[in-house]
Amino acid sequence: MNIPETLDWMSVNRPALLALIRVLILVLPILILVPGFIWLERRLLSWMQDRIGPNRAGTFPKDFPIKFLRGKRTFGLLQPIADGVKLFFKEDITPASVDRLLYFLSPAVALFPAFALGGTLPWGPNWGPYQHLTPIWNAEIGILYMLAISSLGVYGVVLSGYSSNNKYSLLGGLRSAAQLISYELAMSVSLAAIVMASGSLRLQAIVEAQETPLWGVIPYAHNWFILTPFGFVAAIIFYICMIAETNRAPFDLPEAENEIIAGYHTEYSSMKFAVFFMGEYAAMFVFACLFSVVFLGGYNLPLNWVAISGENSVMAGLNYWLAPLTFLVKSLLVFSTFIWVRATLPRMRYDQLMALGWKNLLPAAVANFIVVAIWIMGSKAYGPQGGIVAYVGAALIVVALYFAVTRQTKAAKAFERRKVDLTEGDTPSPTRRSVELV
Amino acid sequence: MDINALLPTDMNGWAHLGIVGSLSGLAVLTAIGVVAFNSPIRSALSLVLNFFTLAFIYFSLGAELLGITQIVVYTGAIMVLFLFVIMLLNLSADDPSQYKRDAKPVFAGIIGLVVFGLLATAVLAPLKAINQISAPDRNEFNPIGWGSPQAVGKTLFTGYVWPFEMISLLLLVGIVGSILLARRKVTS
């Protein structure tokens, strides 16, 4: 397809200006979309909880100057703006004996990783006009950069919890930090399996590795990593870790209102709280973008239109020009599943949360990694068929090992499901007898 | 020593000197801040900034894998644990008025000056090519470069594979040992 190499003069003569444009192209849409995310969360969560959600803000009044718009509704789209105005005008309370420097710095420290996270995300292909506009830094270490910045997100939580001079905030902050560093490990190992399968840490190269035929044999579909067996396991592990990394339900014990009175951001009112809020939604969106890049094929349309209808066809052109829109739609779908999970699952207790991260997800991610390594070795030594045999064999061995190691004896199972009689009087009534499932 | 031979010759060299110089200055300031602050949490945060600046120095020298690993490991994990310990133990700032006057700062100052002299001699003596202290970019003779993950991985797993495996075993021994040492004694 003949797309002229525009923006070449800018990349040669004014590379710093082009870099600034790239940054603005990423950061401004995130800033503009944050109210949209707030609206989406409130309405979608409400619909899933069988209620309507805020839909009053934004109805045009009966004496509006433009006659056509009188009485028309906007379904609550102005509600986030109303929220922002409210937060702006609220009284900015600062507790008296906080550590002032850290207290005022920590919202900024919490916001910085949320926006810096998108530094290596590619929202368009690497040729034509898009190649100079994305990603901001086409680094060889692309995905490792995102893991590094997400590990800096711990500081915002820890510093805000400590500097609030409030023991519940400190406790919430330390708990949240422990949760974040535990789930970083499983996240990194699950991504490492994908990196091995695609051969490079560069996110652009990971998207290009997904443009090959599906499973190696079906030429009309893309090889999205979520459709491959190892990628599916890695996607589930990465998805759970993503929810834990952004402190979303069911992993939101550190900021739950009925548990710890909002945890690390208790003492922050008005705009400082708005900064935390904004940082959380921005981080969720960028993580959703990372999920769609690594597992859902990035900026490509679902079927391989270049293979189906040739390189210069209408669909291949649409595949190129609609790349940012496809990327946005995929990320919004993943974002909506975050809200869906929040509406569905109850909050996890802290020891359950840590046990899940260390005892279930990390071994699963490492086992997936080993199986992918054996598959690559097998296919290098014996060709693709030998690779599949090696993969299936290794997967069976791993699953058998898992069941052998974690098998409970009959006595332990019976003890876990014993019936406990909670009635202590001598008039046992049927309604007071309960079965305790420990 | 001819000072004109040490200065950079073109704009690229001056820009590089500016970047490396200011990053190094920030690194030195934060390192001094680690020992100069009274409150331990300010010292720990100063060390966090120091590691962050070191990572940027690595990036400016072309060693990107090393720089990003510095952020992930040091800034993202080790310093978080430092902060955990300081916050859990609730260490507060020292009170300088409780110290007795003795001769320790004088001796420390003399030894510090001696070390500074040694370092200055070691650094300034071979300083002839100040504009070329970065690893060269990839070119046609070296297609994978020096600081990229491909280059590090290739060297680590082919030429230095025995030391690599030995070091991983050593780390494993360290981890198991620290878990054993920190375990509570089970009283039966």
Question: What's the layout of helices and strands?
Answer:
The complex is a heterodimer of chains A (438) and B (188).
Chain A (H helix, E strand, L loop, with lengths): L7 H6 L1 H34 L30 H11 L10 H17 L25 H10 L1 H11 L3 H32 L4 H7 L3 E2 L3 E5 L6 H17 L11 H4 L9 H25 L10 H5 L4 H8 L1 H22 L5 H56 L4 H7 L22
Antiparallel strand pairs in A: 1-2
Helix pairs in contact in A: 2-11, 2-14, 3-11, 4-6, 4-11, 5-7, 6-7, 7-9, 7-15, 9-11, 9-15, 11-14
Chain B lengths: L2 H4 L4 H26 L3 H21 L3 H26 L14 H21 L24 H11 L1 H22 L6
Helix pairs in contact in B: 2-3, 3-4
Could you explain the architecture of this structure?
The complex is a heterodimer of chains A (438) and B (188). Chain A is an all-alpha fold and 438 residues long. Chain A has helices at residues 8-13, 15-48, 79-89, 100-116, 142-151, 153-163, 167-198, 203-209, 229-245, 257-260, 270-294, 305-309, 314-321, 323-344, 350-405, 410-416; strands spanning 213-214, 218-222. Chain A has one domain. Chain A has 16 helices and two strands. In chain A, helix 3 crosses helix 11, helix 7 (167-198) packs antiparallel against helix 9 and helix 9 (229-245) packs antiparallel against helix 15 (350-405). Chain A is globular, with a radius of gyration of 25 Å. The N and C termini of chain A lie far apart (63 Å). Chain B is mainly alpha-helical and 188 residues long. Chain B folds into two domains: 3-94 and 102-137, Four Helix Bundle (Hemerythrin (Met), subunit A) (Up-down Bundle), CATH 1.20.120; 148-188. Chain B has helices at 3-6, 11-36, 40-60, 64-89, 104-124, 149-159, 161-182. In chain B, helix 2 packs antiparallel against helix 3 and helix 3 (40-60) packs antiparallel against helix 4 (64-89). The chains are: A mainly alpha (438), B mainly alpha (188).
